[in-house]
Amino acid sequence: MSERAPISLAAQVGELARRSVMRTLRQPAQIVPPVIFPLFLLAINSSGLDAATKIPGFPSDSYVDFAMAFAFMQGAIFSMVNAGTDLARDVESGFLTRLALTPMRRAALLVGQLAGVLLVTFLAGVIYLLVGLIAGVTVATGGTGVIVLFLLASLIGLAFASLGAYIGLRFGSAEAVQGFFPLFFVSLFLSSASLPRDLIEQDWFRTIATYNPVSYLVEGVRSLFVIGWDGEALALGFGIAGLIALIGVTASASALRSRVVR
Amino acid sequence: MRRFVDVAGAVWWRSVHNFISNPAFIAPSIIFPLFFFTAFAGGLSSVGDVPGFDYPAGYTAFQYCFVLLQASAFGGVFTGFGIASDFESGFARRLLLAAPNRLAILVGYLLTALTRASLVIVILTTVALLAGMQVSGGAVDLFGLLVLALLVSLTATLFSAGVAFRTRTIQAGPAMQMPVFLILFLAPVYVPVDLLAGWVETVAKINPVTPLIEAARGLLSGGETNAAPAFGIGIALVALFSIWAVRGLRRAEAAGG
Questions:
Q1: Which domain holds residue A230?
Q2: How far is A53 from chain B (nearest CA, A)?
Q3: For tag attachment on chain B, is the N or C end more exposed, with fewer CB atoms within 10 Å?
Q4: B25 touches chain A (CB under 8 A)
């Protein structure tokens, strides 16, 4: 009797990514909020804060252009929730324990899960952009800028998803992941997401926004829509997103080692 | 009547005790309004310099009024969550069996929401005053502002209670939260209605919450405000959703809790 050939790491990742995408697609509660909620706030903010474009020094004459970054950031925060919730459920349901009995590699679980969440985040980003374009959004950096936008948005999505994965694996509770959602949401509101930092009047708020790394992620995405090619904003955006992703993936891998003990 | 008061009081005391003693319940009720106030009044204060923005008490006071009504409304929604949880745990079923007059149960939950709203109003107002909020309205104006906030709290509680009585599951949480969230944010949140743009301006003009927010801002600034229509709308909403909640209660009774 011949032994079956071991499944390659790529095939394991593919299988778990497919599982991640399928379980998300089967749960409307994981799809509808990441798509609808950012678009709703985009609509509200772009109408409600359109008057802000009259503030001297405001970088755009359209608040909807300015607010597009907010939608992408919200999508990334939802990727944190989805990645964390899925992995926490895997812990709660005993899936990880059963997985430890198989030859499946730990890295495949983490990479597969994150890849699945990223695909959903990417598709949500496509919807934000399409709706934005219909609403009259212009991308100052053109078609190439859209490619860079999705690269940056995907890296930011990975950064948040990896933090969610760490929380899900570390606490092993979907409720704990949900509990972290407001914290991430607060970090978005306490950034330069609603106004450029130099136009924030309150010193204490501007200081918080300056030290808040989310500001630089927002500004990186926003520069592609309203400023044009801004090397500093993009370098900071990619650099900080990459750093958070590195920390998140490392922490998640460590938490996974503790969870999947063979 | 004595039994009615006893049941309402017992439901009120139990719910308030649960709310006060459980950080998972009390923290969101207090932290979220403070967070919104901080983010809006702090982060967006330069919006108050926009041409046409002529609210005399300043942007902090402008946002305080919105957050006050929002916090009052969400206190009501959270009370609705509590009702739904009581049904899921089976407590409400026993309560329905034990209460001689079941309307007292609803009244108990309404008293809970008012207590909850009062606590949040005190904390939010203290923080706003410490942040330098200008208050130009007189004592009568401020009393009117408080009454408006409590009317909003009652409306949201009655709406959420109606949903909770019909569904009897906490899974209906989004059905309580989202409509309240939507109607509040489709009002003039960041700027007066005249400075809104696009379809939100159209929606805000027919949104019943808009007169409530405008009246609250008028009362706080002490300017010439015709707040009577806002109180009329507030009372009408309470009356309308009282019917919704009582009918929901009857459905829960018919379903046996």
A1: 9-257
A2: 9
A3: N
A4: no
Number of domains in chain A: 1
Contact status, residue B160 vs residue B88, Cβ threshold 8 Å? no
**Dist CA A42 CA B37 (whole Å):** 19
pLDDT tens for chain B, residues 1 to 257: 778 898 999 999 999 998 888 776 777 788 888 988 998 888 888 898 888 888 989 999 999 999 999 999 999 998 998 898 888 888 888 888 888 888 999 999 999 999 999 999 999 999 999 988 989 889 999 999 999 999 999 999 999 999 999 998 877 887 888 899 889 999 999 999 999 888 889 999 999 999 999 999 999 998 777 889 999 999 999 999 999 999 999 999 888 76
Here the ipTM equals: 0.73
Q: Is residue A231 part of a domain?
A: yes
Whole-prediction pTM value?
Answer: 0.82
In a domain, A80, yes or no: yes
Helix/strand/coil (H/E/C) assignment for every residue in B157-173: HHHHHHHHHHHCCHHHH
Per domain, the residue ranges of chain B are 2-254
A-chain residues near B130 (CB < 8 A): none
Residue A73 lies in a domain: yes
For residue B195, the chain A residues in CB contact (below 8 A) are 50-51
Torsion of CA A54, A59, A63, A68, to 10 degrees: -170
> In B, which residues are within 8 Å of A43 by CB distance?
199-200
Cα dihedral A111→A113→A115→A116 (10° resolution): 160
Q: Determine, for residues B190 and A46 on separate chains, whether the beta-carbon distance falls below 8 Å.
A: no
Domain assignment of residue A2, yes or no: no
In this structure, the number of other CB atoms found within 10 A of the CB of residue A15 comes to 14
